[in-house]
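Methods — Computational structure assignment.
A single polypeptide chain was analysed. Its primary sequence is given first, followed by the predicted tertiary structure written as structure tokens.
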Amino acid sequence: MAPALPATLTLAQASTTAARLRAEFERQPAGAAWEVDAGALAEFDTSALAVLLELHRTARAHGAELAVARSPDKLRQLATLYGVDALIGIQPAA
């Protein structure tokens, strides 16, 4: 099961969420794919993108790529607006 973003991810939750996810991913074998499940994400702001960008940087430092699964439409739209959708591995809508 992929690590998951919480239902709420705003500035108040960003640093603890990033730290938790980074710790989960860093326990994986080197080069393993990093996938985060965004399916529960309901209330968020651009802090969610900041968390995903940080995870992307950390993944690259560990020789891995980040993929974001089950992204809500609003997250995909926000990532596209900021031009980071491909960078952070937002998967297109099914």
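Note: The two ends are 19 Å apart (CA to CA).
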